[in-house]
Amino acid sequence: MTPAPPAFLRFETLSKTYDDVHAVRDVSLAIESGEFVALVGASGSGKSTLLKCINRLVEPTFGRVLLDGEDVLAGPAPLIRRRIGYVFQGIGLFPHMSVAQNIALTPRLVGESLTDARIAELLELVELHPAMASRLPAELSGGQRQRVGVARALAGDSHLLLMDEPFGALDPITRGQLGQRVRGLHRELGLTTVMVTHDMAEALLLASRVLVMDGGQIVADETPSALLAGKGGLVAQALVEVPREQARQLAGMGE
Amino acid sequence: MSPLLEAVLNLGPQLAEHVLLCAAAVALGIAVALPLAVWSSRSATVAKVALGFASLVQTIPALALLALFFPILLAARSIFGPDLPTLGFLPAWLALALYALLPILRNAVTALANLDDELIEAADGLGMTAWQKLRLVQAPLAAPFVMAGIRTASVWTIGAATLATTIGQRSLGDPIFAGLQTQNWVLVLAGCIASAGLALVADALFGMVERGFATRRPGLVIAGAALALAGIAGAAASTVDWRGDGRENVVIGAKSFSEQYILARAIGSVLEDAGYGVEYREGLGSAVVHNAVASSAIDISVDYTGTLWTNTLERTDNPGRAAMYEKIVQWEDANTGVRVLGRLGFENAYGLAVTQETAERYGLSSIADLASVAPQLTIGGDPEWFERPEWNAVRDAYGLSFGDQRTYSPTFMYNALLSGEADVISAYTSDGRIAARNLVVLSDPQEALPSYDAILLLSPRVAGDAALADALQPLLGAVDVETMREANYTVDRQDDKWSPARAGQWLLDRIER
Q1: What is the pTM of this model?
Q2: CATH topology of domain B350-441
Q3: CB spacing of A94 vs B119 below 8 angstroms
Q4: How far is B51 from chain A (nearest CA, A)?
Q5: What is the DSSP letter of A92?
């Protein structure tokens, strides 16, 4: 009998404490290549902290994170981060660089440059016109900026995409469109994606696996259909109840 | 050509050295402040200490900061050897660089601290190293603010650098100090116009660079920086001695009053005739001069026996004129290696002077007469006077207790006496204004005030130069007090004012006759 191949991403008894507060408490978890995982929970449930332990924006107090079987804490932080795409609510496009320069940053850090054709291709992946390449971030709308943010995260050819409330600051229409585009990219590029969101509806619509966090621990680990079928426990069901209730009310108003 | 324009156009060498001094000081300020700012952005403790220190430096008056570097460098000689300069460029450069530190450091620290957290998170998340983050993100975004700090520092430095004159560094302060002492307002104005003009030009150029950074127009940055560098290069080129005959100059020091300027020029003229190259360090603080000559920072100075007796030998007794001179000659020889070449012939003693009118009203002829009326009177003195042992001696000997005491620069002291703001002043007996304004110098029956023979001092560096001593020989014993008063008055009077150089030449002509 051959041993099962190690999981693509693995958390082992991970804890993070700030002063006396447990942000993450003894989390063990395996994520396989190709999964689209949503981390859902209320504010302060520890979901962002857990995510940032992967690319070392947060260093754990105890336990470890293994990426492709290697401890992410081995070696310098910049090296591991360059292998991981990172998109966050703040977007963080550099205002003194054009769209093209922002997208080309990760390759530039290792001394490589991107061709105009590759930048155009990346812009098209996030449904932006290639002519946008020469614009400055200040000239773009919020949605366009986050599309550039996603293109930048993909420019390093990483297979792991981390997203921390990526669509939190966007209007609902843009938010829906960009969510679907990211879902498409996940499939087309064969990515493994971990997305933090407080919006259960978004998680259910985009993810293949939903982890519900509460008080620093994972309290539910279900597929969207299982959650919709009532599984996952009280906390998870309370979160699922929010969009469901909204849908009922909307349906009632239409009658 | 108007005298003012002529005076401004004559400031070429001062302008060039001023530019170089300020450029060097701001450059050193930047070189220290920027790494410190980066370090501060990574450690709150460093930020607190660095900003606290820079702010503290800023509270020290610029003049005092410049003066403080003299003893500091003198002490540093025990580490760096006796060739370390203690006056001139080095202390001025260090003091001004310290002064330039605060605006650059504060702006840079503030700019780095206020960078958007999201941009820093993005930079980290993308996998930038600390250096890449600094180079690609922090430096470009902080650049306009850092440049604004450099701009402020430059304008401050250009202004403060005029004070470098007092520690023997040629600058645009030369005409200001010389003009202030001799009441030559054209010179003062010329110095002010030149330094203000320089500050405006620097402000405009660095403003251009700052705007270039802020609006991301590299052309503006390059143009502004190139123009500034061209100006500095031009200044540097103009100070190079292209003839390169390499002859060693003799440096003549002068304290900041007319007599000293005149004698320095007279000595310089004699030495030039004897084939020496000559430089002047004028407007030096009185206390600095003896240290300067003892440390060979300057080579020749004119000092006064009473001044050295009380300040340098720290004696409080009064052995009489001849004995005091002999004692000083021996003491210098034994302790500093300074050679006292001889006496010039006149005394420039401290005395208490009143107007003719005051003398008559209170019946004053000696200092003893002052004691009973002193409480109704105001005494004015130069900035040193009230700190000097002579003042203590004369005050205690006669039991003087004045109603009020005020400090004036020597020039303004006489104006204060004539305008009635002061009733009694600490006058100098060789001052041309005593005779010209009909002042009464009160006699000193108790001999509380020591004698002040003008003596010529040679630094240890040139003490053994026989040719130099020979050249200066004709000056010894040759200048009587009437001649000195007359020469002083040509420079101090309001109308038909002479330059110290012209008065010095006049003095030499008078001696030869």
Answers
A1: 0.73
A2: D-Maltodextrin-Binding Protein; domain 2 (3.40.190)
A3: yes
A4: 28
A5: -
